[in-house]
Protein: Acetolactate synthase 3 regulatory subunit domain protein
Organism: Allosphingosinicella ginsenosidimutans
Amino acid sequence: MRNAPDHARMFIEFAAAEGAMVRMLGLVERRGFIVHRAAMAEQPCGRRATLALTVEPRDESRSIDRLALQLGRLHGVGRVDHETALIREQAA
């Protein structure tokens, strides 16, 4: 087995409005992260949603904490949580 790069799981609660997903995903990519997985769930009220992302920094200078702060400043974003995990994969 070999170590894969550090990945982070992010959970973003936001107002389900036009352009919200584009703003969030665009910021993640512009800040130097690769999106590996994305899943969204809308709240029953239809006005709020949660986006779950698995991201990987393009290099060691990228900070997941800084990315979380920047996401939290976006219009309509209510809360951002994250966890970092070293994901292992089997060598082929």
User: Anything to note?
Assistant: The chain has two helices and four strands. The chain has one domain: 6-86.
